[in-house]
Amino acid sequence: MDFKPSYVLLFLMIGFLLRKTLYDLWDNMLKIVMLNLGFLASVAFPIFIPSLLANSTGISMLEPVLTVIGFIFCCIYLSTASYTIKSISDYGTFTFGNFIRNIKLAWSAGFVMGILLIILFFPMFPGVENGEMTIKSVAAIILGFYMELNPPLLGLALTAIIFWALIFAFLSFQFYFTVYARLGSKIKKSFKKCMLIALDNTGLAVFMVINNLIALVISVIFAFMFPGPVGILLYLDEALRLRLLKYDWLEANPGANRKKIPWDELLIEERERTGRRTFKNFIFPWKD
After folding, report:
1. Angle, vertex CA 234, rays to CA 97 and CA 210, nearest 5
2. Residue 20 belongs to what domain range?
3. Is 184 left (phi over 0), alpha (psi -120 to 50) or beta?
4. What is the spatial distance between Cα 218 and Cα 225, in angstroms, rounded to a whole number?
5. Is residue 272 part of a domain?
6. How many domains does the chain have?
7. φ and ψ of 128, to 5 deg
8. pLDDT tens, 109-156?
9. Domain presence at residue 283
10. What secondary structure letter does DSSP report for 226?
11. Is residue 287 part of a domain?
12. DSSP secondary-structure letter at 285?
């Protein structure tokens, strides 16, 4: 079989990924916007409501408790959204009834991720720094502990290891909701699969982070309504769906060179179903 250079094949896959995601975002813009509005409403709860209720009732403990509950709900919302929009990647669509029904399937994944993020990054442990009371997160406490170790070189080395471990976790777990939704695995296996995907596709994982950051910047212009968090979840699902074609091919071709995936061949059907559009097709699709 005649293979193109690996970097050319990678660019072909990424180019198709960007094109398909753009088409799917455009075709489902209203639904994406509505889901993003729902997420913004969810985010508003832990940001505004806890302090208002704590001040009005005089119960100070309400604020951290409601903030934690609101944050976990946001994670459950994202998990449910990821479960719902995967139908778009599969050339289908969804209704908001599907979203409601998917809560039952997705809530546990969102709950676990919410708890994990709260334990690591939510300031809730009191301490003393420079003679003053402080409240720190687990991550801050761990990094601070290793940075203060003697000899300093050992502390610096351990801090660097933890820092890069957190970077790897960030690269891996950006796929968490998507992996759980698309592969239908248990939560523990979903975390493991995320790490395996990031290890085997490090370049793609870094590329996805960069593109997601760009998408966030664009989202700011549109008040996070488009493409927004849900658009980013769709992009991640599109990427995972296409990447799974690679593993299906490797399974069917044991012993094949993992660095020479025939993306031209694997994407034939995908290209035919997706097609190509001109600017006129985007704006006036009925005139096609």
Report:
1. 155
2. 6-126+133-278
3. left
4. 10
5. yes
6. 1
7. -125, 130
8. 999 999 999 988 888 777 666 667 677 788 887 877 777 777 778 878
9. no
10. S
11. no
12. G
